Amino acid sequence: MFIEQGVNSENKFWKYLIGSVVIIVASFVGQVPLLLGLLYETMVGGKAYPSNNDAVMHFFEPNLTLFLILLSFVFTLIGVYFVVKYLHNQTMLSITTSRKKMDWSRFFFSFSIWAIFTVISTLLFYFVNPEDFIINFKPLPFAILVIIGTLLIPIQTSTEEYVFRGYLMQGFANLAKNKWFPLLMTSIIFGGMHLSNPEVTKMGNIVFVYYIGTGLFLGIITLMDEGMELALGFHAANNLVSALLVTSDWSAFQTHSLFKDISEPEAGLDVILPVIVIYPILLYIFSRKYEWSGWREKLTGKINIEEVNNI
């Protein structure tokens, strides 16, 4: 059982608080190269120091900005590894899946189905509303983007999954001894993590319906499938394909993508539709393919620590 793998009498919740601090510190360490780059350009290059997150995103050449931002997730993932291994005496596999090894077929199925959907829906939006897009393709910058994105975006998305659907999911299970509380808390925190995203400034707080809803979706497929493989694949496809296809002046990632969205953003069906329509369809597809059952128990059931310790 996936969520129970981190639940035992020795794995107290205070350890997860300490571990979270260590992971946050590792993330800050990973941001040092970006900070040094900013200081160099302001002190030597004479540029004005960026006053907000949006200014930071537009400070460097887009590929360099993307590289420096994604680099911090490498350090964060290293922090997760050391916390899991040395503070909790667990393996990374134990916060990845309940299976004996990572099931890459699950990862690639989830990646493929969401990548295909993203490509088709993006092209559909382009052909229906061509005035909202401009062709942004530049061969060399795009080739560099493909390299950076392919190498580092899966690390970024995997880091977020390991923190939320792996580490914190099991941590809140230790605290609450049930499954609904970890699912709810990790989804809310995951949504809150996107508070500084420029999309929030442009579209308002309603965008949190999408962020928290996505967190719930990823948490549900993790609990139902007894592992993170599907969530890892979905998240990687979502960020990588989106970064390659479309950018805008108000998106979290500024990239040399194929298209640039020049429309004025508004929170509409594109925010609500995935949560109330697309995600339920994906849940149905996954549940049929992997023969999920026992939804109530897996999503809301109690965790008996004595039984877990005897497994």
User: How many beta strands in the DSSP annotation?
Assistant: 3
List the uncertain runs.
none
Largest sheet: 3 strands, mixed
* First-residue to last-residue Cα separation: 10 Å
Shape: globular
Strand share of the residues? under 5%
Keywords: Membrane, Transmembrane, Transmembrane helix
Protein name: CAAX prenyl protease 2/Lysostaphin resistance protein A-like domain-containing protein
Pfam families: Rce1-like
Domain CAAX prenyl protease 2/Lysostaphin resistance protein A-like: 143-241
Walk me through what this model shows.
- By secondary structure, the chain is mostly helical.
- The chain has helices spanning about 15-30, 30-45, 55, 60-85, 105-130, 140-175, 180-190, 200-205, 210-225, 230-245, 270-290, 295-300, 305-310, and strands at about 135, 245, 260.
- It has one domain.
- Strands 1-3-2 form a three-stranded mixed beta sheet.
- It is globular and about 60 Å long.
Key features?
13 helices, 3% strand, 3-stranded mixed beta sheet, mainly alpha, 311 residues, 68% helix, single chain
